[in-house]
Design a protein that fits this description.
- The chain is of the alpha+beta class.
- The protein folds into four domains: about 50 residues, Classic Zinc Finger (Double Stranded RNA Binding Domain); about 50 residues, Classic Zinc Finger (Double Stranded RNA Binding Domain, 2-Layer Sandwich), CATH 3.30.160; about 50 residues, Classic Zinc Finger (Double Stranded RNA Binding Domain); about 35 residues, 2-Layer Sandwich (Double Stranded RNA Binding Domain).
- The strands form eight sheets. Strands 1-2 form a two-stranded antiparallel ribbon. Strands 3-4 form a two-stranded antiparallel sheet. Strands 5-6 form a two-stranded antiparallel ribbon.
- Strand 15 and strand 16 form a beta hairpin.
């Protein structure tokens, strides 16, 4: 014990332990034995400390608090992970583009951009999304839910970005600048549309006379 000897090896994976009781506890990982049930929800655990930790989800106990902002956590590992927000530590790099993340789940989510994986389908129309939050936001199109009201005129929106865009009307903001002539616009799409004037792009042809227009509205007027 004092020399660091670990005389009790696991017969399955070879990991060694200082006490037989530690080895016996470890063996449950391999056997699948879970002798510690939660008396509230019935979920079972192979270690007593895992059950104790789980019980906090029922009791609401959060014994680990952040020394910087005071936020509390059920597990110490959650607190340590949270601390990276304050320290700026980003130990999870993307091997494809090099972008770094402070949480492993953020890296996993980012990787879907490269792989094209979209594991969250809409149950109504089948459109797929990289994040579940994106799917939930999309669902408001089908439900008609508009939880973002304008405090000035009362108009409601299904998306936060739609409200932010709308607010520029009240504020008179024109945040999108044409790099060629300096004209400003409220919407990015308006800049894109305007740039066709400079580029000479006319993607809207008249089916009757063949005359082409840079704007759909100009074609409609024609």
């Amino acid at each position: 014990m004092h020399t660091g000897d670990k005389p009790f090896p696991c017969d399955v994976c070879g990991q060694r332990f200082t006490r037989k009781s530690y080895k016996d506890s470890h063996m449950r990982i391999h056997t699948g034995n879970k002798p510690f049930p939660c008396k509230i929800c019935g979920k079972r655990f192979n270690q007593k400390y895992s059950l104790d930790r789980h019980m906090r989800s029922h009791t609401g106990e959060k014994p680990f608090h952040c020394d910087v902002c005071g936020q509390k956590f059920i597990q110490n590992s959650h607190k340590n992970s949270h601390m990276r927000i304050h320290t700026g530590d980003k130990p999870f790099p993307c091997k494809i583009c090099g972008k770094r993340f402070n949480q492993k789940y953020s890296l996993d989510r980012h990787m879907r951009v490269h792989t094209g994986e979209k594991p969250f389908p809409c149950d109504v129309c089948g459109q797929k999304f990289i994040q579940n939050s994106h799917k939930n936001s999309h669902m408001r199109i089908h439900t008609g839910d508009k939880p973002f009201p304008c405090e000035l005129c009362g108009q409601r929106f299904s998306q936060k970005f739609s409200l932010n865009t709308h607010m520029r009307i009240h504020k008179g903001e024109k945040t999108f600048l044409c790099d060629v002539c300096g004209q400003r616009f409220r919407h990015k799409s308006s800049v894109t549309c305007h740039m066709r004037i400079h580029a000479g792009d006319k993607p809207f042809p008249c089916d009757l006379c063949g005359h082409r227009f840079s704007q759909k509205s100009h074609l409609n007027s024609h």
